[in-house]
Amino acid sequence: MSGGLLVAGTTSDAGKSVVTAGICRWLVRQGVKVAPFKGQNMSLNSFVTREGAEIGRAQAMQAQAARVEPTALMNPVLLKPGSDRSSQVVLMGRPVGELSARGYHGGRQQALLGTVVECLQELRATHDVVICEGAGSPAEINLRRNDIVNMGIARAAGFPVVVVGDIDRGGVFAQFFGTTALLAPEDQALVAGYLVNKFRGDVTLLEPGLDMLYDLTGRRTFGVLPYAHGLGIDEEDGMGVPPARAESRARGRVSLPGAVRESVVAPPVGEDVLRVAVCAVPLMSNFTDVDALAAEPGVVVRFVDRPEELADADLVVVPGTRGTVKALAWLRERGLADALARRAAEGRPVLGICGGFQALGEHIEDDVESRAGAVEALGLLPVRVRFAPEKTLARPAGEALGEPVEGYEIHHGVADVRGGEPFLDGCRVGAVWGTHWHGSLESDGFRRAFLREVAAAAGRRFVPAPDTSFGALREEQLDRLGDLIEEHADTDALLKLIESGPPGGLPFVPPGAP
Questions:
Q1: Which of 24, 158, 198, 409 is the most buried (most CB within 10 A)?
Q2: Which CATH superfamily is domain 253-467 in?
Q3: pLDDT tier at 260, thresholds 50, 70, 90
C-alpha cells in the first residue's frame, strides 16, 4: 500500500502524538513500512538522532513505534521556547537563530514550507506510508496563511485529515463542529472525519451524538478510543510543566503539585520506598529523563517547587532547562538553592542533568542563552561553564559505576571540570552528581547501580528490581497504543482513507450552521 494521513487535533494535547504513534505501531504490525512526520514542532523535549540532528522527542518516540530510525526528515522545524515571546529555531536538526513569535509567523514560517514539503516527499519515496502529526489546532485562522504543519501541509501533500478530540475535557462535539466550520472550503474538503480520544464509560451512550455530528457535518467518526491510564508516552506541544506521568504497569509515580497521583507498586517486603524529587525549574527540558526512575518498583517521583518538599526526598534531581540562568534565579527565589546546599553538606544525594548540572557548578559565563554575562552558580560542583554559540549535539556512550551507559547531549554550555570524581563527562563530589548526558538512566544496569548508590547515601534499604527493562516497558507502551487503534478504530476505513486520499463530495460546513 502507499499513501498518507494527517492527524490533526481540536486543541493542543488532544492526543495527536499518541494517536500518530498508535497508527504507526498498528501499521508496522501489518507489514507496512511507515514513517512519522511533523513539519513543525514546538517543544522543550528533544532528542538527538544518530546523525547528530535535534528533533522533537515525540517524533523519536513515533519512529520507535514505526520501528524505524529517527531522522531530521521527520521533524524539519523545531521551535524551542526561551520565553513567552521567542524561540530558538532548529532547522533540519541544527539551530539557526532566535526569533520572536511575530517574526516567525510574520514571514519566516512560510519560507520554510519548501523545506518541509521536500522532507515529506523524501519520506514518501522511501516508505509505504507517512503519518503526519499536526500542531495545536488547524482552526487557528489567524495563523492559517503561513501554516506549514496543519492544513498547509495536508493541502500541499493532498493528504486526508482525521481530527482528534479529547472528550475527557468536555465539549468535544462543539470542538469537532467548530474546527470544521472555521476551515476554508479547500481545507474542509480534506477533513475526512473525527477520532474521539480519552472516552470513559459506555460508548453506546455516545453514539447518538456521533450520528448527529455526521448529520451536521457529513463526516464520520473513525473510532472512539478509551481513556488509557499510565501510558507515560513522550507527548510535547508547547512549554508547559509536564502532566502526571506513570509507566504502563503503574510501577512508579511522577506527579506535580495538585496533579492526580498514580499509585506506586510497593517494593519487596523488607525494602524501603525510594523518594525522588525533581525541581520543576522554568523552561524545563527533557523531563523525560526521570521516566526511567519512575519505571522502577518502589521508586516514587514527584515534581516540586518548594524547599520543604525536598525534606523527605532520598534523591533530588535538578533537570535540564532551556534557561540555566533563569533556573538559577528561580532556585534562589524559591529557597531551593539553600536547601540543595544543605543536602550537599549533609551528604544527601543530588543529581544535576544538563542545565541542572551547569547550575550546580561554580561559575557561568553566558553571552548566548540569557546574555547575562558572568553569573555565580550554586557552587556544589567544581565546574565552570562557558556558553558557546555552537550547540553540542551528540550521542555519547561509555561506562559509569561499572556499567555501560548511553545517552545524548543537547547544550550550548561547555563545562570545564576542575576536580571531583569523573562521572559521564561531568563529575561527582560526595553525593552530588552532575552530567550533560540526557537519557543515561534508560540504561538498565547503570540505573540500578546509581539507585544502589543513592539508597546507600540516603540510608535506605532499597534494592532495584533486577528484571526491570525500560526498553521493554517502552515497547509495551507502544504496543498498547497500537492495540487502541486496532481494537477501537475502524481500521478498514483508515486503510482505505490512507490509500485512496480525501473522499470526494464532502459537504461544506458554513460557520454558524446549523
A1: 24
A2: Class I glutamine amidotransferase (GATase) domain (3.40.50.880)
A3: very low
Task: Determine contact, residues 407/426, Cβ cutoff 8 Å.
Answer: no
DSSP per residue, 273-331 = PEEEEEE--TTEE-GGGGHHHHTSTTEEEEEE-SGGGGTT-SEEEE-EES-HHHHHHHH
CATH topology of domain 3-231+475-499: Rossmann fold (3.40.50)
Which stretch, 80-84, 238-242, 283-287, has highest mean pLDDT? 283-287
Which of 354, 411, 436, 488 is the catalytic position?
A: 354
Residue type, 95: P
Strand duo 86-91 + 94-100: pairing: antiparallel
- Tell me how far apart the alpha carbons of residues 133 and 62 are, in angstroms, rounded to a whole number: 10
Question: Residue 514: is the preceding peptide bond cis (ω within 30°)?
Answer: yes
- The pLDDT assigned to 8 comes to 98
Give the distance from CA 183 to its chain's centroid.
28
* Residue 464 to residue 458: CA distance in whole angstroms: 14
Integer-rounded Cα radius of gyration of the chain: 23
Spatial separation of the C-alpha atoms in residues 268 and 381, rounded to whole Å: 35
The continuous run of DSSP H or E covering 102 comes out as: helix 101-103
pLDDT of res. 511: 87
Verify whether residue 438 is a known catalytic residue: yes
Q: Which amino acid is located at 89 in the chain?
A: V
φ, ψ of residue 456 to 5 degrees: the values are -65, -45
pLDDT tens digits along 356-384: 999 999 999 999 989 999 999 999 999 99
Q: How far apart are alpha carbons 48 and 286 in whole angstroms?
A: 12
pLDDT tens string 214-230? 999 999 999 999 998 86
- The single-letter DSSP state of residue 204 is G
What ranges do the domains of the chain cover? 3-231+475-499, 253-467
Tell me if domain 3-231+475-499 and domain 253-467 are identical in fold: yes
Give 204's contacts (C-beta < 8 A, 6+ positions apart). Answer: none
What Cα–Cα distance (Å) separates residue 466 from each residue in 175, 276, 358, 453, 472? Answer: 47, 19, 32, 15, 13
Catalytic pick among 411, 436, 438, 488: 438
**pLDDT > 70 fraction of the chain, expressed in percent and rounded:** 90
